[in-house]
Design brief:
By secondary structure, chain A is mostly helical. Chain A is built from 11 helices and no strands. Classes of the chains: A mainly alpha (230), B mainly alpha (234). Chains A and B meet through α9 and α11 of A and α4 and α5 of B.
């Protein structure tokens, strides 16, 4: 009886932490709006720097969208874990009997819903600018569904590493960009590949996703432990 | 005896005793290797004199990866077995590896201009080595950002482990992708595809540069240990 009660409390605490995160971010909806605005503005800057040549834009539209996706994942780094660390929520989580690995998994899910899902809904609308064929848009959404959780894990790793760093805020994004190079290579490769051979690249992307899910929470939790102990 | 590999005090005694001898050996080996490579080895029948860039390029590339492998091993030791010498090692070795990677990239592009016709190609081997260089730079930056020394070194060791995924990519990039960079020709010892008159000076330069690496490493490690001693006293 008590065993079932314990499990119930455990599940309840996980769900309540997730709801709390979502609520806090929902009340600060400006963050998500600023993310979308950043996306549009950087896309406009790319288009202005290339020039209004339709043929060129049709070719490199996918690469532009994917590079902005990686750039936009660097914005959300400083927010996701920093606030919880500063107001002492991590200590409270530990008193509740939750390990940091579980908190890391919850954080991955919530920050994917908050910072990547709006972009996945929003990006297919912006592809009208590039006049892409429907096949490519479909592949874009598929690669983004597989690839964006990887970016979330990476940005959480970066933000966990930079918890006690108050001076130099650019390093967080410096950490994400080089380790997300394989993601962009295989995602854009899968979209631009011939219809017969795109599957290989998708499989590699999926394997990166599974590997980052397997390793990511451990890295995040060990970084949090180092920062909390100090 | 094995304690010099992880005990800072033992290592310091060892380094004080043998650094001078190591310095002499390194100078002799470098002079022999450079003379053998630049003067006594023949020019290539296609590449001419510019084949001699190889005698700098290949040892630097080998050392760039070797340094990272050592750093990975020592970060594992430091993080999982709480051996503080690992953090000292990572801090001392990262700039050396960065410099060797930079020399490898620059000499490669100088060699590439007459041979391939371009300074730089976006092929797998070159790109992955460039990313290795960026990893080294980020490790050095992380070590210097935090106010607390211990957090900086722990987090930089975690980043070293994260970046070690790049090592097999560099090693096998010439086999996995069709690249402009030629596949490995030295390690095929059973049927080496290099003429013995070129392989000889290459191995000599490799040994000499490895000794140079260990010399610089010993000096830097000794300095780092001494800095920490003064920090503890204050």
């Amino acid at each position: 009886m008590s065993q079932i009660k314990k499990i119930n409390i455990f599940i309840l605490s996980i769900v309540s932490i997730a709801i709390r995160d979502l609520l806090i971010q929902y009340r600060k909806l400006v963050d998500i709006v600023s993310l979308l605005t950043f996306f549009i503005i950087v896309m406009l800057i790319f288009i202005f720097s290339i020039g209004p040549y339709d043929e060129k834009l049709k070719d490199i539209g996918v690469s532009i969208i994917w590079s902005i996706l990686i750039l936009s994942s660097t914005i959300s780094t400083n927010k996701s874990l920093r606030e919880d660390f500063d107001d002492g929520s991590f200590a409270v989580y530990q008193f509740a009997g939750l390990s940091y690995e579980f908190i890391a998994i919850i954080k991955i899910i919530t920050s994917w819903i908050l910072y990547q899902l709006p972009l996945i809904i929003f990006i297919p609308l912006t592809t009208i600018i590039f006049e892409m064929p429907i096949q490519k848009i479909y592949m874009l959404v598929v690669t983004m569904l597989i690839g964006s959780p990887i970016l979330t894990v990476f940005s959480l790793i970066a933000s966990a590493m930079m918890l006690t760093n108050k001076k130099n805020l650019t390093i967080g994004s410096l950490i994400i960009l080089p380790i997300s190079v394989p993601v962009i290579i295989f995602a854009v490769g899968a979209i631009n590949a011939d219809p017969e051979i795109y599957k290989a690249q998708l499989y590699i992307l999926t394997s990166i996703l599974l590997a980052s899910f397997a390793i990511g929470p451990w890295i995040i939790s060990s970084c949090i432990k180092i920062s909390v102990k100090s | 005896m094995l304690q010099i590999l992880y005990n800072p005090g033992r290592f310091n005694d060892f380094a004080k005793k043998y650094t001078n001898i190591l310095r002499h050996i390194t100078i002799y080996l470098l002079v022999i290797g450079l003379l053998y490579a630049l003067v006594f080895s023949p020019n290539d029948y296609q590449q001419g004199f510019s084949v001699k860039i190889m005698y700098i390029h290949v040892p630097c590339a080998w050392l760039a990866m070797f340094t990272y492998v050592l750093m990975t091993i020592y970060s594992i030791l430091a993080l999982s077995f709480k051996i503080t010498f690992g953090y000292i090692f990572v801090k001392a070795a990262a700039p050396i590896g960065a410099i060797f990677t930079l020399i490898c990239l620059i000499s490669g592009s100088i060699w590439g201009k007459p041979m391939w016709g371009t300074w730089w190609v976006w092929d797998a081997r070159l790109t992955s080595v460039l990313i290795l260089f960026i990893f080294y730079i980020i490790i050095i930056i992380i070590q210097n950002t935090f106010d607390d020394l211990q957090i900086g070194e722990k987090i930089s060791s975690i980043f070293v482990l994260l970046g070690s995924i790049n090592l097999p990519v560099i090693k096998y990039s010439v086999d996995w992708w069709n690249t402009l960079h030629q596949p490995a020709s030295v390690s095929k010892l059973s049927s080496p595809s290099i003429e013995i008159t070129i392989l000889g000076p290459l191995i000599a330069m490799n040994v000499a540069m490895t000794f140079l690496f260990f010399l610089i490493l010993f000096i830097r490690l000794g300095a780092e240990i001494n800095i920490r001693k003064t920090l503890i006293k204050d």
